[in-house]
Every structure is written in C-alpha cells, then in structure tokens.
Amino acid sequence: MKGQILNILKTETRVVSGEILSARLGISRVAVWKHIKKLQEVGYNIEATPKGYLFISAPDALYPWEFEEKEYRVHYFDEVNSTMDIARELARKDCPHFTVVVAGRQKQGRGRLKRTWLSSQGGLYFTIVVRPQIPPVLSSRVNFAASMILAQTLRNMFNINAMVKWPNDVLVDGRKISGILSEMEAEIDRVSFISIGIGINVNNDPTPHEPMATSLKKILGKKVPRIEVLKVFLDRFEDALNDADFDNVVSEWKRYTQTLNRHVRIVTAHEVSEGLAVDVDDNGSLILKLADGSVKKIIYGDCFHK
Ligand code: BTN
C-alpha cells in the first residue's frame, strides 16, 4: 500500500486529497493517514496540508515497498550481522526464487576467503537467493552473470568504465567498487539454492584500510539514490536468469574483463601462483601460463593485477 501511495503522490505535482487517495486505493482515509505518518517517520518528506498531501522527497532508503511487484520477495533490515545468514535461513525455509535480503549496514559483513567486508551506512549490501535449474558444476556461471550485469548496469546508468576482474569483482579505473560472495547448497546433480551476496560502494567512503577501493560518490562527486541502482540491477539480473542461456555467460563476461592477457598473482587458501592470465574456461576457472611455460587451472582465489 505504501508503494501505491508513493506512486500516486510522486506523479502529482499538486496536493492530493486524502479522499482521492482513499477512493483510488480502496482504503479508509484514516488508513491513508496512518500509512503517510509511517512514511514520514522513516524519512519521506510528505507535506500534510488541510487540502491533502504533497510529496517533496524520498530518503536514500531501500524499503520493500519501493520495489513494486518484487515487494513481497524483498526483506529489508536497518542493520544485520550479514545478509548472507538471513538469506541462508530463508532459503532453507523454501523462500521463493529471487528473494532479496537488503541491509542498511552489516556488523559482520563477510568477504571472500574469510575476509571482512566493511559495511558502513551508504553502501549497498544485499543477498539474492536464486534457484536455477542447473547442476552444481555450472553454478559459478551465475556469479559471472551477476558481476557482468552489474558492470553493464553501472556503465549504462552512470557512463563510467566499469570492468570485471576475475573472478567476480567490479572495478572502475582499476579500483574495486563491488565484490561478490556466493554460497550454495546442492544435491549431487541439482542446485538447491545459491545465495549471491553483493556489496557495492555507493554513497559510503572506502576507509584508509581499503586504498584500492572506490565508490560511486567518489567517482561522480555526488551521492546517487541507492534504490535506483538496486532496482535496475535486480530487474536486469532477474531477466537474465529467466532467459537462462548460461552457455554464453563466460564468453560475454570476457568482453568486460581486465584480467586477461596480463600478469597476475593468485592467492588461494593454500598457495600463491603467478603467471600470465591466458583464459577463463566455460566454468569460470582461470587458466594461468606459468614462468616455466606450464599451464595451471585455478578454480577460485583472489586475483591481483600486476
Ligand atoms: C568480496 O569481494 O570479498 C566479496 C564481498 C561480498 C560482500 C557482500 S555485502 C552483502 C553480502 N553480505 C555479506 O556479508 N557479504 C556479502
């Protein structure tokens, strides 16, 4: 209902009476007033005049009612430990495909390879639960689709040169703007769910501990509405998953990568390898040519461009 009230108010430049709202939405004027009071409390600037209501501005917020038909699949929290934990719980309780858990802040945001993901106010932190009909061996293609679609989204929305770094980081001018962590539960031949956790530096300032990080605010010199970034990305990603031709994901991803044909250092939980990144195979493994001429295939790790 709040989404519908906002839609009406946002399209009107003049005051809209409680009577009109109540007739259009089929609820009482008191109910309209209660919804508007709640919206004001959470930061929407809606002027209440004797003649009705006037929308002035929205906060930089991510409330479920902003997501229109996706509203029932979006779970919003001001603060959580990690959206990954909540997504896993929901997934184990059979939440629908493309359920989204969004948080304003995370107290224990997780990065890949057991790192911490600093998650202060102003960034975008969310996990999407997907249930693709694919065998577990192909699951990494979903992450490649996510990072590629995010890079495309940032390019289209802000005209910036977003690129992907193996396996699933998004960089702008060589600095990290987004990282992806994914967790999967599966049977031997079938994925049960994949939780794709995405952190995007939007209106937050990367800390001095993250010298190779950047944010949209830093690049553009102004804040941007996080909700717009999230909505556009979710729409594109959901469409891509539904069209599910995962066969070409990695080859398309390669068009946006800065990793290939350069010398890289790959750090995994067990070892460090250095060499020339010559290819990424259809399942997302990086093919490295080592100094002695041999070829090594790396499934997962952290990549540093040299
Ligand atoms: C990385 O580059 O190391 C991956 C970072 C992933 C961070 C996101 S933020 C939303 C979701 N919740 C988490 O705890 N982590 C992921």
Tell me the structural class: alpha+beta
The bound ligands are:
biotin
* Terminal residue distance: 52 Å
Portion in helices: 25-40%
Give the integer mean of the pLDDT values: 94
Give the SSE order as H and E letters: HHHEEEHEEHEEEEHHHEEEEE
Q: Major sheet: order of its strands?
A: 3-4-5-9-8-7-6
Radius of gyration: 22 Å
> How many strands, what sense, and barrel or not for the largest sheet?
7 strands, mixed
Number of helices: 8
Beta-strand percentage range: 25-35%
β-strand number: 14
Oligomer: single chain
**Which residue ranges are poorly predicted, with pLDDT under 50 across at least 5 consecutive positions?**
none
What form results from the Cα inertia axes? Answer: elongated
Protein model, in words:
The chain has helices at 2-11, 18-25, 29-41, 83-92, 140-158, 216-220, 226-243, 249-254, and strands at residues 45-49, 52-57, 74-80, 99-106, 124-130, 162-165, 169-172, 175-186, 191-200, 263-267, 272-280, 286-289, 295-298, 302-305. It has 306 residues and is of the alpha+beta class. It has a seven-stranded mixed β-sheet with strand order 3-4-5-9-8-7-6, sandwiched between helices. A five-stranded antiparallel β-sheet has the order 13-12-11-10-14. Strands 1-2 form a two-stranded antiparallel ribbon. The chain binds biotin. Residues 82-84, 106, 109-112, 115, 117, 125-127, 169, 179-181, 197-199 line the site of biotin.
